[in-house]
């Protein structure tokens, strides 16, 4: 039997069950609005969105690996490309680009031209410190942690704040060696 070839983000997106984009966008907006009401402080909402995203990312990586047939990435650069080209397409229907690598190859930017989470959104003046899509940074951080990469993910640019694109900076803090719960007896 021939090995299964990795699938592109477009192929996976075409075969994945989807929900209505407007329903998804409005539901996410309602959730953010409820967090703003419950927590009152914008920084607390940012932290809660990041934590929610982290919890999603921890679970989402299994689905991603099962459906994409992507093999183990060689390094952090390849991992970032897979997230941008396959992961974002598979789960959000958009493709991102990776750029602005540092000399060590441990920090990059993932740039989204389009972001379905922000359709119909305008931030009021009272929410200018809000990173409305902070759930995405948590998803990336959680997913990467499950594949042994401890990262820090922060927003550099946000179109809701007047920037020309959505840009996430992903910084590899350390590659965690995989630990096995037991040793094989030989």
UniProtKB/TrEMBL annotation:
It is found in: Endoplasmic reticulum; Golgi apparatus, cis-Golgi network. InterPro entries: Bet3 (IPR016721), NO_sig/Golgi_transp_ligand-bd (IPR024096), TRAPP_component (IPR007194). The keyword Endoplasmic reticulum applies. The keyword Transport applies. Pfam families: TRAPP. Keywords: Endoplasmic reticulum, ER-Golgi transport, Golgi apparatus, Transport. GO terms for biological process: Golgi vesicle transport. GO terms for cellular component: endoplasmic reticulum; Golgi apparatus; TRAPP complex. May play a role in vesicular transport from endoplasmic reticulum to Golgi. Homodimer. PANTHER family: TRAFFICKING PROTEIN PARTICLE COMPLEX SUBUNIT 3. Belongs to the TRAPP small subunits family. BET3 subfamily. This is Trafficking protein particle complex subunit. It comes from Olea europaea subsp. europaea. The lineage of its organism: Eukaryota, Viridiplantae, Streptophyta, Embryophyta, Tracheophyta.
């Amino acid at each position: 039997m021939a090995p299964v070839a990795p699938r592109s983000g477009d192929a996976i997106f075409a075969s994945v069950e989807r929900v209505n984009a407007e329903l998804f966008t409005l539901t996410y907006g309602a959730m953010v609005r409820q967090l703003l009401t419950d927590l009152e402080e914008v920084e607390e909402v940012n932290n809660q969105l990041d934590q929610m995203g982290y919890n999603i990312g921890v679970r989402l990586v299994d689905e991603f690996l099962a459906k994409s047939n992507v093999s183990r990435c060689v390094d952090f650069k390849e991992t970032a490309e897979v997230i941008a080209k396959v992961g974002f397409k598979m789960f959000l229907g958009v493709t991102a680009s990776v750029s602005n690598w540092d000399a060590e190859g441990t920090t990059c930017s993932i740039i989204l031209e389009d972001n379905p989470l922000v359709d119909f959104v305008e931030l009021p003046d009272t929410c200018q410190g809000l990173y409305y899509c902070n759930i995405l940074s948590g998803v990336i951080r959680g997913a990467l942690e499950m594949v042994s990469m401890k990262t820090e993910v922060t927003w550099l640019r946000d179109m809701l704040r007047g920037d020309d694109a959505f840009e996430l900076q992903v910084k590899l803090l350390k590659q965690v060696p995989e630990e096995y719960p037991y040793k094989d007896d030989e």
